[in-house]
Amino acid sequence: MKITPLIGLEVHVELETKSKMFCGCPADHFGKAPNTQTCPVCLGLPGALPVPNKKAVESCLKIGLALNCSINRLSKFDRKQYFYPDLAKGYQISQYDQPFCSEGFLNLDSGKKIGIERVHQEEDTGKLQHTVLNGKKITLVDFNRSGVPLVEIVSKPDMASSAEAKEYLKKIHEIIRTIGVSSADMEKGQMRLEPTINVCIENEGGIHYTPLVEIKNINSFNFAVQAIEFEIKRQVEEYENTGTEKSLTNKTTRGYDSVKKVTFLQRTKEEAKDYRYFPEPDIPPFIIEDDFVEKIRKELPLLPDQEISSLEKLGVEKKDAKVLVSTQNRLAIQIIHDYSRDDRVDPRKLASLIVNGKLDPSKDTKAQYDSLTKVGITDKSVLTAIVQKIIDTNPNVVAEYKKGKTNVVGFFIGQAMKETKGTASPLILSELVTKLLNS
Ligand code: ZN
Ligand code: MN
């Protein structure tokens, strides 16, 4: 029996724009007093009209471009209807068949390409808070988050292990942070993960696919890994026990309990037709001109993988380059690039000293580098090479020595001291100079 997991990921990212997606309320809702950042639009009051946030649209296009998507010239918003207490309008403004961005990809370090199906724009819902008041179980609703701009990134089911899924997620996280559209702070719910998983089982009977399972709202990379691993095992077991295979109607939604480390059934999954999507009548369609796309493309900074390979080209080890890029150590990266033009500085060594905390890039880098990499006074082979080089480059002085001017030995020692920044023993140098001049 051969088992191949098929894992796709939906990632929701909250954008850090000043205002919400369709109104002027502040988008920064974290820690604010409940229901203090609302208006008729984001409360979904009748007659209120949404106006799209240009900055949010630009951010969505940036994400799409960074993920190698094509930007669709014609786009529109759609209404996705579903009832939920924190969705005041009874529908979410999202994008259905004409998203801003589609058909991109992201490369894993192995070279494997993970397809990106779409990157679309939508709005966040409010937040429910389940609590107890006067001995009664109640649910409170806070609409501060309602209407905050969201971007949804949907991958193809191209990942075959939890490790690949984790690498994909980390790369998405890094790209989002690098292009500056969101801090993607998972603890604040700014990046939410939803893996969809099923398993391809090959046995004597042929090839079988287990039913699709979507796991909702995971807020850490490690929980995503655990949920995926649990689900792969559970689905194989379920197949062995029941023989149930994937059909058009048996997709389900599960939650992940990070304490018990299990997934649990939430509901059978709605299909697209259940949402009764239709074009949002209050927002005209978008025509996105090439000029506009090119303007946005030019605003993109060097992406993490590009930055890593530019460091590697200077000779920096990949593992060090990855640390510098993932910790967004801009200063160190800049210094390595600047100093790589200096022959005496080895970028590989410089990067490694910074990554290992031996060199602080915010202080005098050159002085630190020189003192950290100075020649050891006891290293005779290094000293021999230095003295030999001085002899080779000063044939006139050597000629004088051969004529009997033995005091030129002092000149060679002086040069060698300079070269080693005074770290070599003059005694050893004098020995070496005499030996090499006479050889
Ligand atoms: Zn509002
Ligand atoms: Mn969504």
From TrEMBL:
<dbReference type="GO" id="GO:0050567">
    <property type="term" value="F:glutaminyl-tRNA synthase (glutamine-hydrolyzing) activity"/>
</dbReference>
<dbReference type="GO" id="GO:0005524">
    <property type="term" value="F:ATP binding"/>
</dbReference>
<keyword id="KW-0067">ATP-binding</keyword>
<protein>
    <recommendedName>
        <fullName>Aspartyl/glutamyl-tRNA(Asn/Gln) amidotransferase subunit B</fullName>
        <ecNumber>6.3.5.-</ecNumber>
    </recommendedName>
</protein>
<comment type="subunit">
    <text>Heterotrimer of A, B and C subunits.</text>
</comment>
<dbReference type="GO" id="GO:0006412">
    <property type="term" value="P:translation"/>
</dbReference>
<dbReference type="InterPro" id="IPR004413">
    <property type="entry name" value="GatB"/>
</dbReference>
<keyword id="KW-0808">Transferase</keyword>
<dbReference type="InterPro" id="IPR023168">
    <property type="entry name" value="GatB_Yqey_C_2"/>
</dbReference>
<keyword id="KW-0648">Protein biosynthesis</keyword>
<dbReference type="Pfam" id="PF02637">
    <property type="entry name" value="GatB_Yqey"/>
</dbReference>
<dbReference type="Pfam" id="PF02934">
    <property type="entry name" value="GatB_N"/>
</dbReference>
<feature type="domain" description="Asn/Gln amidotransferase">
    <location>
        <begin position="291"/>
        <end position="437"/>
    </location>
</feature>
<dbReference type="GO" id="GO:0050566">
    <property type="term" value="F:asparaginyl-tRNA synthase (glutamine-hydrolyzing) activity"/>
</dbReference>
<keyword id="KW-0547">Nucleotide-binding</keyword>
<dbReference type="InterPro" id="IPR003789">
    <property type="entry name" value="Asn/Gln_tRNA_amidoTrase-B-like"/>
</dbReference>
<dbReference type="InterPro" id="IPR018027">
    <property type="entry name" value="Asn/Gln_amidotransferase"/>
</dbReference>
<dbReference type="InterPro" id="IPR017958">
    <property type="entry name" value="Gln-tRNA_amidoTrfase_suB_CS"/>
</dbReference>
<keyword id="KW-0436">Ligase</keyword>
<dbReference type="InterPro" id="IPR017959">
    <property type="entry name" value="Asn/Gln-tRNA_amidoTrfase_suB/E"/>
</dbReference>
<dbReference type="InterPro" id="IPR014746">
    <property type="entry name" value="Gln_synth/guanido_kin_cat_dom"/>
</dbReference>
<comment type="function">
    <text>Allows the formation of correctly charged Asn-tRNA(Asn) or Gln-tRNA(Gln) through the transamidation of misacylated Asp-tRNA(Asn) or Glu-tRNA(Gln) in organisms which lack either or both of asparaginyl-tRNA or glutaminyl-tRNA synthetases. The reaction takes place in the presence of glutamine and ATP through an activated phospho-Asp-tRNA(Asn) or phospho-Glu-tRNA(Gln).</text>
</comment>
<comment type="similarity">
    <text>Belongs to the GatB/GatE family. GatB subfamily.</text>
</comment>
<dbReference type="GO" id="GO:0016740">
    <property type="term" value="F:transferase activity"/>
</dbReference>
<dbReference type="InterPro" id="IPR006075">
    <property type="entry name" value="Asn/Gln-tRNA_Trfase_suB/E_cat"/>
</dbReference>
